[in-house]
Fold these 4 entries.
Entry 1:
Amino acid sequence: MAIEFREVSLDPLAGLSARAPDGAVIGILGERGAGQTRLLHLAAGLEQPTSGTVAADEPSRLLGPSDSWNLSPVRTLLLDHAFSQMGALARLRAAAGLERLRRQGTAILLVSQEQELLRELCDEIWWLDQGRLAARGEPLEVLERYRRQLTLQIRQWGQDASQPLTPSFRRGDGRARLLGLETLDSQGRPAMVWHSGEPVAVRVRVRFEQPVEDPVVGIMIRTRIGMEVFGTNTGLEGIPLGPCPAGETLAVTFSFLCQLCPQQYTLTAASHDPDGVWHDWMEDALAFSVTDSRYTAGVVNLRAAVAVERGRVGV
């Protein structure tokens, strides 16, 4: 037994019970203020719980992000975001050193927000949520639960948050003016965060300052580095809008499935003539994000189906 927490409380930790055996790397995951650093301080004996007990083998060593890496033999190694300032080569050396200590029986508690790092190095992950142990167990399973919870929280924040239109540039002859641009979730509510796979929409509001015979309203989605992902307009979709007299206002909604991978995107909108003469063009006017409960690489989520056939060659 290297470290055992028995009904330990010390704000924000509340009634935490968990055991880290010898020769195990335990990842500690949670949002800021969930109690990760306090847990390490308790394990190191730097603080004492208000209730409960901590049983830990001695000696122990606590390393933070600015400390030099001391990987000499020790019973308990406590790492508080110690990888955060490392380059690639230093990380490889540190990971090799941790493996050597683990094989020698050292119990290692590793606090980090880097999910890939935790997945690669840890035998088990403890997820702290507001001072309580929300989950513990096999890294892939705990990380999946954590991502699901984080996705829900991000989506809730995206529904409550709002942002002004901040185009990188705006141009046009002024015959129409874009009044608003919104990203909508599956319930038709304004949302700065979409979930990959859900029905979503973009709403463009435009007012015509002068009569326009045949206006076209369109949108373009780009990655944050400017790669065009998807664009369409009312002309391409076969939806005539005109003629529109001066003073008329239109709300044009483009609805589709969000088949995007998790990352940040920008949205451009425009009103123009069929030949491309702009009335009003707002470049990268709105930023939004896409989340998912699982990792996908790239830009487009094709949601592949996988089939496996087993057999021997020549049979």
Entry 2:
Amino acid sequence: MKSLKIPPAGLRYDGMIGTGGIGSGVFLSLEGKHTLGREESRPCRILDRRDYCKLHIISHYVQSLLGSGFEVIPAGKIGDDEAGKRLLREMQEVGLCTRHVHTVTELPTLFSYCFLYPDGSGGNITTADSASGHVAPADICLLEDDMRHLGRRGMALAVPEVSLSARIELLNMARQYGLFCVASFTSGEMPEAARRNLFQKIDLLAVNADEAGMAVGMASDGVDRVVVAAAAMKALAAANPKMMISVTGGAAGSWSWDGTHVSHVPTFPVPVVSTAGAGDAHIAGMIAGLALGLDLCAAQILGSLHAALSVTSPHTINAEIDLAALRQLASTGGDIPDGVRAALEE
């Protein structure tokens, strides 16, 4: 993909260091609408969909959007197996710096079995004892020279599918060297993040409506996502008034808080094939926008454009996203900031 147009003044940041899950998976389409039983044997079809984990998805997209002038350094572990070798090769092909992606011989690469019911709902079963699950704070300490080098010109990313302790170590080190810190947590981790005051370490918190709701003890099921987003952003802003917040709400669009006001961006009209990975595509677009020097609202719009194109693919990394597609989609929206339009120019 041809990268976004870099402004004359250059990028605000020079690179990003991140930790999170690196792995793959398979999608299974179940027959029958009823919930899978404990001892049930159910026929299914294996779908032609490639699944990737959070760190890989976000890193891939940020590198593709910003090009070789922006160094993306993922830190994680893979197994010495075919899945791990393929993932490492794909990361290197897109230009990611993989010197901190370590291969371990005694553990398998993280793998998920995602099952789908006929109505599109479903769940997943993920290997617990995987290489990603053994990323430890000691592994994050190996990033110190890179963080020191980037300093205030760098961004740090802490996302799930590695231990919370490893992500806390990354955030602590990033704060020490002045990097801009982006983080997300699973729904189950949000109460723990609040209890441990982790929001104080974050410059941009990027979560979905369910994850945001868990920060205030409000389940998103059956509740208007506008209500959930508003309540969550109010509570999260109180926890750290300096923290920017992004909340995605599926078909309801997304919201952001920049410290003074809330912005809402509706979804862009596209044919939806699969929503898996859309949230990670949104985060990647926002990171790219902020690196370009856009304000949070404009970065949110770029994230929304990028997420919209991601759902047109069955795979959690849509390799078909390019500058022309982003520009074409932006032309269908009414209120696209000049900064976003400039970034999408040839």
Entry 3:
Amino acid sequence: MTRIAKLLVAAGLALVAALLVHRPDISAANLADPTFAEDVAPIVYKNCVSCHRTGGIAPFSLVEYDSAAPYLTEIKDAVARGYMPPWHAEGPRHVFKNDRRLSDADKQVILQWLATGAKPGDARKLPPRPTFPTSWAIGTPDAIYSMALDYTVPASGTVEYMHFQVPTNLTEDKWVQAVEIMPGAREAVHHVIVYARVPAAQPATPPASAAPAQPAAAAPAPTPLLIRNRDQERTPPSPPRKDSMFAAPRPMGAIIATTAVGTNVMEFPEGTALRLRPGTILTFQVHYTTHGVAHKDRTSIGFKFARAMPAEEIYVSQFTNGSFMLPAGAKDVAVPAEIGFGQAVKIYGLLPHTHLRGTRWQYTLEKPDGTKETLLDVPRYDFNWQTYYLFNTPLELAPGSKIHSMAWYDNSATNKHNPNPRVDVKWGDQSWEEMQYTGFIYSVPGRVVRPTNRP
């Protein structure tokens, strides 16, 4: 029985149990005639108001009945069709720890509330109003690193990807338990990727009478896990960037954090952590978008550190296909990529990423014996929600395993998001170009964690 089949059976049993015992907190009378205060508010406070609140990214608030009432039609449509809360993967619940879907029971309560007149109920019976952090969602960071200067995002035009180098000046290993990126101008920041690199140690300048000094040893890089990323092997090198002042350094190092609508805070499981090595330099790759008004941005990253060295080190990496071409007008173009692993690994999460022509994704695990199973099926990919699908139970891959990804694109005029169906499209940074990109978080259980070597 495959992993997905087992989960389907478990989910089915859980649903049967739920139907037998009913909802303990909602009486039969309430289910027949629910109110906002007693029945709906507990659901939306738990699932919706992190976005649907004053100051949130959603267009209206669900914290109060009066702010929700003008949008009853929109609420009904969103709940009935299942596109809110935003979750674009298929499959049983309990596979992903960040699954945002409403339970069937909660959907029934909201739809019944709407069908019976959307009554406000007794405001004295509202649950406590949820509170939200005014700054860092991870709590006060142990360390914060920011761009050295504000960057002015123009009111109009195209902004190339900007790159800002930020030294950490660390003198010892730091083990990151949680990380969060905080844009200074959220309206203008489409996404941020933060890279970490340790520059090669430079030899000291010897006195004239002394023998030449030997260069200090650089911090060791982790052993590569990649066996074969078929499409990267035939991808030509990226051309030099035009924005020389804020060009990407070469190399930028490993990805350690990302933020976009739908994903930001990353907390690693107990016993694991991400390493920042002595001398680490961070590079913020920032994609700005213009909105008719100039903005000043100074993006920051905050870290919460683990109390001790972990048993397993967390790594963040990616695999891509950069050699595709989407013909003008083509409606359903499939683009594959794959990655293989030469030793046992744990996979904690997958991030599928395309741009405005991307429509769906599917990931398949191929085991060393050749058998296959679906890991992640995203039939309704939405560029506006960049979701890191985080497994409740990490995937344990044996040596010789492969992950195959397949992304589909619609470059036709029927795609209402298509910037231009009359052109062939290749890999590119901007949203009117395309990507076939997968981020993933992993650890290597058999790898002994040691402090960084120092000269």
Entry 4:
Amino acid sequence: MSEIKINLRAYYNQEAKTRNAATKQDWKLEEREQFHTLANSENKTTLLELGAGPGYDSQYFMNNGMQVVAIDLSGEMVELCKEKCIEAYVLDFCDILQLDKKFDCVWAFNTLLHVPKTDLPQVLKNIDTILNPNGLFFMGVYGGLNSEGEYAHDLAAFPNASSIPRFFSRYSNEALQAVLCEYFTMLNFNQYDVGRGEFVFQSVLMRKNNF
């Protein structure tokens, strides 16, 4: 396992209890509800969540009638998912074909930004492979400017945060749309100003290309 992934696993193992106790902002809940409304209108019943964290999104989809599988690199996060009765596995994004399953939907909220730009095309190909025809794919990430590298919290500003560095890969709106359109049909692209200076949240709804 690469040092990037070792650090990500260690960070999120350490953060699991804190994130399990956190609450989501309203705009995140609205994005999730809109996605479920669309999926439900198309009679889609199966969903894979990439980077499920403590499992609150998976739990929402499951409680609303979907059959859900969740994966995360962090064993601590996967245990929290299982406590919520979610079918969950410790698995890397690059290895989702090991599930040997097909899904109507893939949900990836603020997780694929940890994938290096050189690896993202293969991850997107794998997502395309596991999606059923007309499948839906939601990807939400923080971006706005092109950058890539490991970053650690400033402990002077965030004294209770973990000091373990995390890898982030960020894209401008144009760059993100360009790479995603190589593999999927884009249905909607939203940008949110989330009060993080130059960074914005990019919300992308896509459909599997049926050719």
